[in-house]
Every structure is written in structure tokens, then in C-alpha cells.
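User: two proteins, same treatment. go.

Assistant:
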Amino acid sequence: MRARKNTKRVPSFRKLLRTSQIKLDNKLKNKQYKQKSAAKKYRKEQKKLREAVRDAISRKPFPLEECKKKQVGKSRKWEEKEEEDALPLDMMDEDDLKLMEDLAQKASFLTRDLSSNEPVHIKKRKHESVIEKYEKVPRRLQTEPEKELIHLLPIKDKSGIIPQAVEKPVLNDAHEEEEDTEDMEEAEDVNEEPLPVLSPEEMAAQRRQKLQERKMHIAALASAILSEPDSNIKKLKELRAMLMEQDPNVAVIVRKLVMVSLMEIFKDIAPSYKIRPLTEAEKATKVKKETQKLREFEEGLVSQYKFYLENLEQAIKDWKQRKLKKSNVISLKAYKGLAEVAVKCLCELLVALPHFNFHNNIIVLIVPLMNDPSKMISELCVEAVKKLFKQDKLGYASLGVVKVISGLVRGRNYDVRPEVLKVFLHLRIKEVELQKDSEDIAPKKKFMTYKEKRKNLSRMQRKWRKAEEKLERELLEAEASESKEKKLKLHTETLNIVFVTYFRILKKAQKSPLLPAVLEGLAKFAHLINVEFFDDLLIVLHSLIASGDLSYRESLHCILSAFHILSGQGDVLNIDPMKFYTHLYKTLFSLHAGGTNEDIGIVLQCLDVMFAKRRKQISQQRALAFLKRLSILALHVLPNSSVGILATNRVFMQTFPRMDLLLDNESQGSGVYLPELDEPEHCNAQNTALWELHLLQRHYHPTVQKFASHLIAGAPAEGSGALPLDLSQRSATELFETYCMKEMTFNPPVASVTPRRKDTFLQMDSFVDEELNKQLQQHISETVAHTPLDFAKHLKESSLA
């Protein structure tokens, strides 16, 4: 029978290497485990020994060989009792005395505990515990202090070397006590010397000198660290130690200076990547000197940065708790200044180092301070978060901040300041920016044309080049799609958290002061909401408007949100927004030239979304009614609002046909215009005229005059009545912001008028009439007698009468 063939494959060399490496690793692990277990066992034994010694010492037995001497002050009764109990030696037999003497010569008799019943020569057992061993060791208590010995030269005789020593002489205690009392008296005399009293000028000069020394020390350390961060990273610890300045005269200023200096240093020397901790395998491997130096620098930088952030956090906590420390170096009033500087440093680091370590910890510190009662601190934190949102292109930092804000709003039961939610308006989440960023990440690669290939390459080279170009195109597409998908994923998660926060407030806190911020945020991000929520959201917005609890500004935000929804993905929905048109038509007369003038910007945005982007769904009657009411409103607002409204009227006249009906005095149809009616479809706007434009032609603002004249001419695009390009190419919102008068300046500036030269003229020639001149000269030449005024004269006359 043929032998069976061995089907087992011979392992390859690579596999043998791999398995041998695994075996070596296992052996190393086993060896380490054995070493650990041996060390653990040794530690346990040592612990038992220490416990046994501690227990033995606590019991304090008294051996026979070193019992304490009897005290002199014992009572006579105890002495008499002992004398009665003790047997005199003359009453003992000679055999008993001999036995006692023999036993006294044995150490077992001397060291034995007479209270125990065990025999003297007991054998040791193998299972005897460590504690029992220590229990049987004779106790030696030092009743008297050990005497110091002076070792002398040894003596040598026949028996061997005999060491020699003499006791050190001890001075009398009385003499020592006298010396101690003398030293104490001398120290008291030194302490009793009065300190020199400084004048206020000398104290101020001394303080300035100390402060200058601290400043120079801070500057020297900072310049050394910035010049060579790798080698001088340990000086960060020395500089950070100055945050604990204990001199009460300069403590506050020095701590503030050190906080700001460290913040600037970390901004300069921090790398542009996040430093991760090294693994055990990486620490065990040998590396180059440069790599080891870099590792030490990174480790020191991260640890000092962490301690610095902890110091800033502690400064803020001390101010919040308002508790004096034991050192009492800084007063309670100074805590607020230190906390403000600490918050400024944290805000700078939040914006400057969003990629570095502990950024999430800074976010957790800053976000609750946005709701702080202190206006200065809350504004600092809000501005820092806004800057972070504006410069964050990837979205990691924005996502972290949004998560913390959402948790803060929910944790405080929606009792936060509106500014906390208004920072969401500065998020960089737009489709245009996403497309732009993806194009920047994946630039187009220029490939060779067919003619260039035929001219420069052979047939085989063209074949290889074709395959390479195909592969490169696929790689570029994959890279661009991956980066775009990553960014879209981050932005989607961020927006989901934002909308969850908004919808919670709409559902649970409709009367909260956060509602305007929620409506404003919905108006901005409404085009990014999922279509599934459109119906429910429009119903909620309409119910809020119909309730009448909203102010005109909040209702304007509701309208803007609704039309943003309908102008985007909401085109597919079959919803009639007539009720929103009616509400805006009704709200227009609530605006005026006072505090509500700034809300014209929201109205212009609403009109742009409602009419310019939905021109096919607008009837002629509705457009005429809004055109007439806006012309009336232009008479009651500031110039910048009038310019924006007239620019919107220009869009109306150019977009909708037959708007020039209102430029004719003849009525078109039956009925009378009803300006007080709040229904734009039924107010008969076609039967009126835009007489307000004639008044606006005489307006004091030149731009308003130009727009009024342009509309009276029928808003032509060309010709003599056309607007200049700088006005015609701008939107209504841009014109409203351009001619704003917030800075109390007139735009365009008023031309300066050159003052006329004052003509010199004589006093006689001031009046042409001669008779008037004579009377004037006569009155000037008369001497006037100045009599004292009596204000109580009429009172005296009335009392006499």
C-alpha cells in the first residue's frame, strides 16, 4: 500500500518570522508577569512584617531584664504590700536558693514571659506565622537615653585587641537652661526693634521698583522661551510659578502680566497639529536624539499648557465663589480683575488654537460664561464664539461649541440670554461655501491632449499614459468626494443640533425671550430644513402670528422664515401663503422714523423673498396695494429707509406689468381706494395715484430726490430718467445699509460753504435813516444811573395797599 502523502504545507519564511516574533512576545510577557507577581508577593510579605512590628510595639510588654525603676513618689501602702508579699531569703532553703541562682544564669529564664503557660524550650514549628515570630522576640524599651561614647585607641595584649571608649561629659541642665533663656531674651530684644516707618512716597517708589524687577524677569523668561522653545521649555514652569506671586503690593499686577505673557507664548510656540500621548511601544523604542528632543518638548508643552489652563479656571472659580484664601494676598475686589484677564486669555486661545490640545475644555469653560450676569465677560465670550464660527472652515470646532450651547440651554430650562442663541447666525453653513471649498481641495489636473500624445509619445507609452490618467481622475474624484462628504456630514450634524434646539423652544417655551433669536435663526437656515418638517413648521409659525403675543419684529421674522421655506424646497408644496402677505401688509404702518427704523431691513428682505422670487404667484391687485402702502411709508421713515423702499418700488414697477396705472390720475374701474383696509386684494389700489412721489422729489436727501424723479418718469432702464450705475446695480438692502446714519454722519456728506468776508463798516453808517441815527447817538451819550434793583418792591406796595 502506498504511503499517504503529507498534505501539510511547509510554512513560509515570513510566517516563521511572524510566529517566532509572537513566541518571543509571549515569552517576554510571561517573564514580565512573573516579575510582577514576585514583586507583588514580596510587597505583601513586607506589609505583613510591618503590620506585625506595629502590632508588637503597640502592646508594649515589659521584660524582666529591663523593667522600670520604681518611682519615688509611690504610696506607702503599695510598698508595705510588696514587703508582705515578698519572701525573705533567710526563710528559703539552701536547695531553693541554689535552684534560683542556676536558673538566673540561663537566658531563657530571664527572657521568658511568666504570664504564659507554655514550656520554656518549645520547638519551632514550620507553619508558625510571621506575627508569632515577632511576638516571641524580646522587647527592649529604652528607659534611659543612650550615652554618647568617645572611642579611644585600642590596647593590645596577649588575649587580643581590647577596644577603649570614654563617656562624653554632659553639661549641667541648669547651665543649658540659662543659656536658652539668654538666647530667647536676645531674640526678643531683636524682634522688639521697631521696623522703619516709610512715607507714602517711599512706599510707592518701593512698589514701582518691585514691579519693574518682576517685569524684567517676565520679559527675560519670555524672550528666552521664544528664542529657543526646544531647549528652554522648562522655563515655562518658572514663569507659570509667578502666577502664585505672594507679595501683596504687586501680586495682582504681576499675575495679570504673567497670564497675558503665557497666553502670547503659547500662541507663538504651539504647533499646528494636535499632540497625542505616546504609547508604551513608542516609549520603549529607541529613536534619534532630534526625535527624542522633539518628544520632550511636546510633552513639556502639553503639560505646562494644561497647568496654565487649570490656573485660569481657578482664577475664574475664585471670583465666582468669592471666598478669601488663607494667604489673603489678594482682596475680593481684585478677584474680578483677575477673572476678566483670565477670560480674555481663554477667548484668545479659543480663537487662535482651535486645532491644539484641550480645545474642548476651553469651550466648556467659555460657553457658560456667555450667560454670565457680568456684561463685559458675557460680551467677550460671545464675540470669541462668533470669531470662531466665522473662521472655522472644517466644522469641528463649531460642532463642539453648538453641542455645549444646546446642553446649556436645555440644562438651564431655556432661561438664558438671547445672545447665546444669536451666535448660531454666524455659523458658516452654506452650499456655496461647501462647493467652493471642495473645488479648492480637489483642483482640476491638466491632462495631455490627443495631438500632444501622438507627437511626443510612442504607442506603448500612450497606452500606459491613458491608464495612468484614468487612475488619477478616479483618485481625484474619490478625494474630493471624501472631503466633501466629511464636511457635509459635520455641517449636517451641527444643523441638526441647532434645529433641535430651535424646535424645543418653539414647542415648550413660546413665551420665552429666546423666541426672536429662534425665529431669526429659522429665517436664515430655513432653506436647509428637511421637507418633512415644512407643514408642521408653517402651522406653528402661523399660530404664533395669529396669537397676537408677538411683537412686530418677531412677526416679521416669522414671515421671513415662512417664505424662506416656501422659496426653497417648499416650491413643491401646495400651500397658499396669503395669510402671511396680509399680516405683512398690516404690519407696515407699525414702522416709523424712531426706534423701529432699523426693522426696515427685515421688511426689505421679506419683500424680496415674497415678490421678486415669487413673481408668478402674485396678482396685480396685491402688487398695486403694496406699492401704494410702501410709498406712504417712505414719507415717515429716515432717509436710508426711504431709499431702500423706493428701490423696492423700482423693482415692483420693472417686474410687474401695468404698475404705471398709479402714475395716472384717472381711475381704472369702480370703487374707491380704502387705505385703512388690511386686505391688499380688496382695497382698490388701482383707483389711486402715487402723489407721495411729488413730495419725495422735494426731500432734503439728494438720493431720495433722484429715486423719486426716476419713479415719476416710469423707472426707465435707459435715457435721461435712468438712475446712475452706482444706484441701479445695488439691491434695496445694500442701499439701506449704505445710507445708514448710525454713526451720525450724513451720506453723501454736506458740501462745505466758504464763509463770506466780513466787511468793515463805521458805526455812523450802520443805519441809513438819519433820524434813527440821531436817536441812537443821543441814547449812547446819556449817562445811565445804575440804581439797585428791589425785587420785593411790588410785595411791599401790595401789603401797604
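Protein 2:
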Amino acid sequence: MDTNRVHGALPDPPSEVHGALPDPPSEGAEGNKEEKAFEIVFADLESVDLPLGSTLRSIYDDQPNAHKRFMEKLDARIRNHDREIEKMCNFHHQGFVDAITELLKVRADAEKLMGQVTDTNRRLQEAGKEVTAQTQEVIRCRMQQRNMTTTVEKLQLCLPVLEMYSKLREQLESKRYYAALKTMEQLENVYIPRVSKYRFCQIMAENLPRLREEIKEISMSDLKDFLESIRKHSDKVGETAMRQAQQHRTFNSAVTKQLNLGHYTKPVYSFNGRTHIHVPNGLLMNNDTGDEEEADEEVLTAQDLVDFSPVYRCLHIYTVLGDRETFENYYRKQRKKQARLVLQPHANMHETVEGYRRYFNQIVGFFVVEDHILHATTGLVTRAFTDELWNMALSKIIAVLRTHTSYCEDPDLVLELKNLIVIFADTVQGYGFPVNRLFDLLFEVRDQYNETLLKKWAVVFREIFESDNYSPIPVETEEEYKLVVSRFPFHDAEIEKQDFPKKLPMSQSVPQIYTQVKEFIYASLKFSESLHRSSTEIDDMLRKSTNLLLTRTLSSCLQNLIKKPHIGLTELVQIIINTTHLEQACKYLEEFITNITNVSPETVHTTRLYSLATFKDARHAAEGEIYTKLNQKIDEFIQLADYEWDMSESDGRASGYLMDLINFLRSTFQVFTHLPGKVAQTACMSACKHLSTSLMQMLLDTELKQISMGAIQQFNLDVIQCELFASSEPVPGFQGDTLQLAFIDLRQLLDLFMVWDWSTYLADYGQPNSKYLRVNPATALALLEKMKDTSKKNNIFSQFRKNDRDKQKLIETVVKQLRSLVNSMSS
């Protein structure tokens, strides 16, 4: 071993050495220890696996001079190894030489052999070229054959996939989306897994979700188109359904009437603009042949008018895709929105019946479609969902109809609306929807219909009253008499015995009013039809509406007529006569209603006509107006009075205004001969009392300051004429001097002043048998005050003062006594 190399690898020894090599205590023992320690160090150095750092560190960390000793030991060990190597080389040197010698001998033979092998190989290669070529061709063919077989096998696996995919594309192009989804399902679950390692299959598999989404989008687009289309065609669907329901109802009604009426022939009534004639064989005939033509038409259903395939297709697609719930929620949400749109009324819908018809057609069309979807699919639309929609729709319909009918003033339009509501209710009821609330609404509409009828007949009544001449009906021939009697039930034996020409007591308005009341009953009856009500209920409806006509409309028209200023006493008398005949004719109106409804008037709950109160109130109003107008006329005559209150003596005859007034009263009371006796007597008594009161007020007028005895005498002549008029019995029926008692207050007051019987008056005052019982002390005092000579212009009192001052004192005494009586009465 090269000691210099070892020495060069070792670093310089440190100045101080510690640890591994202890200080030798003695040379012998310490030498053995040192040998062992160096043996260990050399063993570590000779080992190639151990790191040398720790070993070398132990050398330098030992005792001082350990480095030298180590180097010495190292040199010794190297020399020892060199000797061993030399010995080994000497031992093997001869064998090595022999081996080299043998190798040199073989070298020539090896070169010869190599040449032979090379030649043989060359010849072999040349000889095997053709075989090798043939072999390569065989191998290539075999490989091609194997590849072809593998390809065929793989193609046989791929062909069904490609065929199914081609089929899928065809189905998509032909819009057979449900079948396409089924094909996709087979591709995914059956075919593609067999050849999933191929790239085209992976592309197919990646395209399938995209195709599903496209199908979903396309089907949803078709559904949206369907929803938009059905919204536009709901009107036609509803129109068809309502027309079929109307035809069915008409047929059932005809059969029912045939069974119920038998061979009984009813009058001709006009309903819904068509004339229905009940012929003896019991069949119902119409003068409109339109129904027959409609009956011949092919019966169409919702499925005939609407293509529901988009709904079915979309439902199946979403079901296959596992997203049915999303589709159901979307469909129901959209249909709810459409329902709200359908339920919105059109602008000015209340103006024409076509507006209402279009509104009902759209609603019916909507629910016909929903009913078809309900029965044609499973779970897409449930009965609970349709009931919810119907309840929402019903509330909205009722609210809309209530609002719009309130604007309607035409009874014909309300009647047509009622017929539409009935047809609408029958139509939706045929699809299983409850319609009780609609028929309840019809009762409200009936009230509105009656109100419009009442308004219409109020105009009719006013026109009749305005065109009436308020004079008895002249009848020239028997034909005219029969014509009047055919229009109004009038029977009077005395008038029938009279020769033509003659006059009937009522005016022309009476038969017209009676006819119009019957027309009103017909109009009310039109609304009661098809309401599924019993004859008793219809009878009750007719009687109540007729009562409203009589008690409200006719009564109001009569009251307004009576209050009109141009209606005079003659007209008022004729009005009273007319109301009397109308009241008597009401029993025939009850019979008329009974004949229509076939409900006996003896039925417990049958409503009676309130004609008695209606016409009685009208007569009372007319009578009161007669009394008022008579009094107004008397006041007009009284205003013409022109007394000279300071005249010395009377003219010896009654005043002209009063004679005119009496003549007027005589002629007026002659007109009252056709009035009931009590009415004429009351009018006469009222006129006399008002005349007496007016004359008394004339005497006691506060603006009149002085009255002469001559004026009292003139006034007494006028009162005498009034008394003569009362005693002449201008109206028959008064007993004794009952009518003259109207002037008793004036007569006693004038007698008191004419006779100047104050002593008797004052003595008998307060006695029940007093001669001047009706003379009030205040009245006598007021008139006596007017006759006192305060301004020295009273000739009578001037004579008293000149002739006898004691008489003047007597007058003053009477005045004082009268004042004391007045004061005692007031206290």
C-alpha cells in the first residue's frame, strides 16, 4: 500500500489528542492495548461500508503522539500486505503463463473456425432468402387474416350500435322523441357497454345527454306552442261544447214538456227570441229551423278540435327522463296563469251579449281541455287541481258578473245573459264541476233583471199616462166594445144594456196598463225558465215581481202623475175612477198567473197581489190632490176679493168673486158624480171648510186695521150665499145641515156683531147651550178692536158718542171683559 497516499489523506494532527487512545501507564500492557486499538482502526479503515470520519477523528482525539504511532503502525501494515500480495502473485504466476500459452495455440484454430462459420452462414443466408420471403408473406397473410377476423367480430359488435344510433337520428328527424328516448336507453344500457372502448362509442355516449336536453327543449317548446294555441282556440272549443249542451238541454226540455203537458195546448209565448208553440200532440215546435240544421252537424269533441299530442309527448319524454314532477309543476303553473288570463273580462263586455258569450266560451274551452287532460293522462292533472282551478274561476266569474250586470240597463240583454249563464252552467256541470253558486247568482241576476224590467215599464207607464186624454172611452160599435173588453176584463150590466154609441167609465190608459202588466208577467216568466225550479217557486217569483211592479213602479208613476201641475180636477177624478177599475181587475191577473204556472191559488204559501194597497194609496193621493187643488182654486178666487172695509152700508147683493166661486164649485161637484160617494162628500166638505176658514182669516187679517159695520153687512151677504150653496146639497149624501156647519163659526160671529148681543154672549159664555158657542173671545176681541173709533172715522161710534156717551162706555166695558176672558184662557 502506498504510504504516501495514506499520509496525504490524513490531516495534520491536532495540538491536543483526547479520547480514543489513552495514555499508556507502562510499555508492556500499554503496547497490547495499543495494538488492539489500532487493529480495530485498521479494520474500520479497510471496511468499505463504514464512514471514515469517526474513525479518523478517534485517531486525532487520542493521546499526544498517537498520530505518529498510528502512521508507523500503518506503514508496517502496508508493508505486511505488500509481502502477502507478492507471495500470492508468485504462487499463481506459472499458471498464468501456461494459460496464456494455451490461448495463443487456440487463436489460429479460432480464426479458421470463424471463417468457416462465416462462409456457412453466408451460404445459408443465400439459400434461405426465398424461404424467408415466403415465410414473411405467410406471416403477413396470417396477420391480415387474423386482423380481418377480429375486425369482422368487432364490426358485428359495432353494427347494432350504429344501426341503433342511425335509428335514433331518424326518430329525431321525424320528431318521434319518445321512441328516440327509448332507443337512447337501449344504447346506453345494452349496446354501447359492449363496445365502450371505441372512440366513436365514447362520442356517442357523450352526445346522448346533449340529445336528451335537446329533446327536452324541443318537447317543451312544442308544449309552449300547444299552450299558446289552446289559449287561442279555447273560444272555439267552448263554443262547440256550449252549443252541444244547449242542443241537449233543448231536446230534454222538449221531451219533458211533451210528457208533462200531454194534449193540453198552452198559449204562444216567446222565449229567447223564438216562438214556442204547444200543439195538441204535445210536441214543442219552433219557428226557427236552425236547431235542426245544427242537430245534423257532426258532434265534435275537444280531441277533434285540439291536437293534444304535444302534451302526451312531452309528458312521456319527461317521464322517461325521470323529470315528470318538473313537467307537471310547469304545466300546472302555466295553466293557472292562463286561467287567470281567461277569467279577465273583456273591455265593455257588458254592452253586448257577444262579449259575455265570448267570455263564457273561453272559460268553458279552458275547462273542457283540462277535463280531457284529466281523463287522458295519469297524474298530470288531478281532480283536486281542477277543483281548485274551478273554485278560483267560479269566484272570479261571480264577481265579474255581479259587477257587469250592475251596469246593464237593458232587460233583453240581462235575459240573454241569464240564458248564457244557464247554458254555461249546464255545460260545465256535464264535466263534473259544481254549479250551485252559479244558480244562486242567477237569483241575484233575476233581481237585477226585475229592476231593469221595472225601469223599462216605468217608462212605458209614463208614456201611457202622458198620452191618455183622461176621459171615458167612447165606444161607437159592438166590435169596438168587444176589442176593449178583450184587452181589459170589464163587465157592467147597465152599460152593456145601453145602446151604441156609449162610453166606458175608465179612460184609454186602463186597458193599456192592464195589457202591459201582463206583458211584464210574460217577461218575468222568461227569466224563470231553465232555472231548475218548481212551479210553486216560479209562481212565487212571478207574484213577487208583479207586486213590485204594482207597489213600486205603477204606484210611483201614479203618484208622480197626480203631483204634476197640469193635472186638473177632471183628470184627478178620472185617475180615481181608473185606479178603481184596475184594482178590480187584479183578481184576473192572479188567475192569469195561475194559468201560466198551474199552481192553485189555494196553496198555503201562495203570495197574493198587493193591488188593494197600491191603488188605494193612489186614490188617497188623488183625493188629497183634489182637496189641495180645490183649496188652491178657492184661494185664487179669494184673492180676487176687493172689499171696501170702510163702506157705510152694503151693496145689497153678494160680491161678484164669491158668486163666481160658488158657480165654479157647483160645476166641479157635478163632475164628481162618478166618484165614490164619500170622496165627493169629503171634497165638498173640505172645500166648504177651507172657504169658511179663508173668509175668517180675511176678517182677522192683521194688516186690516178698520172694519165698518157696512163692510160687516156686505160680508154677511157673502156668507149667506155660502150657506145657501151648502144647503143646496151640491153633492148628495149629506144628512141634514151637515154641510152648513162648515160656516157655523162665521155665522155666529157675524150674528153677534150684527145683533150686537154682547150681553147674551158674555152671560152664556162657557155654557154648552150658548147661542154663540163657536165664537172665540180672542176672535171677537180682534174684530171688535178693528171696529173701535180710534181715529174718529167710525160713523157708528161717532153717533154713539154724540147721542149717548153711556153706550161708548158699554163698548169699552165689553172690550175689557173680552180681554179678561182671553187672558184667563191663555193662563
